[in-house]
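User: Here's a chain of 310 residues. Predict its fold as tokens.
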Amino acid sequence: MTSLLVGQTTLPLPLVRRGKVRDVYAVDDQHLLLVASDRVSAFDVVMRELVPYKGAVLTQLTAWWLRRFEGQVANHMVSCDVEEIIRRVPALVNHQDELAGRVMLSVRTDVFPVECVVRGYLAGSAFKEYKASGTLAGERLAPGLQESARFDPPVFSPATKAESGHDENITITQMARVVGADAAEELERLARLVYSHGRDLAATRGIIIADTKFEFGRAADGRILLIDEVMTPDSSRFWPADQWKPGTAPPSFDKQPLRDWLDVERKAGRWNGEAPPPTLPDEVVAATSQRYLAAYERLTGAPLDLTQLP
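Assistant: Prediction complete.
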């Protein structure tokens, strides 16, 4: 069974922005509606094909994490129950099927213009920079680290928020210039707190959260809220713990099958790495979908409830 695939929504609400994956609408001056589509991007290019269940995994996994931090870290979630949301926003009554499982009603905030990245292991862009210069965001790291080496303690590594292209790693000092020293200190504290709890819980499920990024916003009442997605396959690097070994790049519970296939196409000269992307084989789409569903089930301990999806 495959759920209704949603590539782009057109709802009877003001569209705030359409990202690579999410469509964001204004409900009123205090609330936003976040809709996670089934769009998928790789190497900063959005594919034409949609990945079944992807939007539902991103939304439901985020909601699962947020519930576990209640009382410790304030967050933006009001509801991700589509029936409750429609009761609150009756204009959506004819859109229940396309929203089911993938929609979240959220508190509106002034978003801090930084990504709060916490790295428990040396991977991705951090390893590329370290390999080239021995640094992370220009700051020296210990010599002799291998790819996938564990950081103890984890490294807080903020980045600029890029609407397109890659985020750029920055220092904590640079972050403080952008958001203010007090806010920077609090964002680091909150990001480390969420990561540490997430890392410890994931470890009991045989998953390493190698790195992850968080976003925060300030609500109208002055509170700093955890917003957007939280420790999903799109915002995090998940590794199976039994396959981690320093000096190697473990497989990821994310869109790695997609990246691997695109890498082959680039090396063969069949794709130049820019839009438009090549047409994805059905098996690559299916393998990517299975990775997202597997990540959800491994972390939460239960499969995604497909009976709630149209």
